[in-house]
Amino acid sequence: MTNLLQGKRVFVTGASSGIGRAVAIGCAQHGADVALNYGHDEAGAESAVREIEALGRTAFAMQADVAEPESAGRFVGEAATALGGIDVFVNNAGICPFHGFLDMPVDTFERTMRVNMHGAYFMVQAAARAMVEQGTGGSIMAMSSISALVGGEYQTHYTPTKAGVLSLMQSTAIALGKHGIRCNALLPGTILTEINRDDLADRQKREYMESRVPLGRLGQPEDMVGPAVFLASDLSAYVTGAALLVDGGMFVNLQ
């Protein structure tokens, strides 16, 4: 394994499972020390920490609800103290409780907005402040989604948040470029995680979704590691404000 991230300090939100966990461990495999934020899955976070430490890297984990704005400064501050600074921030935490539009509960809509959009805003802001104070630049990336580009019948509360995250990365790329901070969005397609486990338990639906992917399969969390490592590393030194679609070709498959 190449050490593309040797010496870098990477912070990842929503890192106890799914894409966040895969990215956190993948960054450690490339030489990074990693700070993990998690919401509720303490066992998952602890096991991720053990895997990172087994690679000879330093790991730090903190429980914090990203929907609470004060969590952002607390996580970034304590993680930066533990790792000695921050070089890369990955905003990954998100939820998608599938529900119809006409009877969408207000609390479901508002919770999704607070976690996915407000959480991204305040976490990215806290990371950016730390990077500016540090004075050495950095890389910020956020997990948007293919859902930023297309609709979903049971995702009317979710798709706007992912479009918002994409827009946030475009605007922060402009705001933070003068500080040497790059901001980019990753747009996963259908990745098999806890967020869609129940939705894809329907065999017919899963087979249909697979049939839409030119590469012939749905994504795994590990499929997001390479793109994330690229954006975290110096290989992407002139990449900012970009949106990288990682979907096996699903988006372009109109027929």
UniProtKB/TrEMBL annotation:
GO molecular function: oxidoreductase activity, acting on the CH-OH group of donors, NAD or NADP as acceptor; quinone binding
One Pfam family it belongs to: adh_short_C2
Keyword Phosphoprotein appears in the UniProt entry: no
GO biological process: fatty acid biosynthetic process; rhamnose catabolic process
EC annotation from Swiss-Prot or TrEMBL: 1.1.1.378
Catalytic activity: L-rhamnofuranose + NAD(+) = L-rhamnono-1,4-lactone + NADH + H(+); L-rhamnofuranose + NADP(+) = L-rhamnono-1,4-lactone + NADPH + H(+)
Domain of life of the organism encoding this protein: Bacteria
The protein's annotated pathway: Carbohydrate degradation; L-rhamnose degradation
Family statement: Belongs to the short-chain dehydrogenases/reductases (SDR) family.
Protein name per Swiss-Prot or TrEMBL: L-rhamnose 1-dehydrogenase (NAD(P)(+))
Organism the protein comes from: Pacificimonas flava
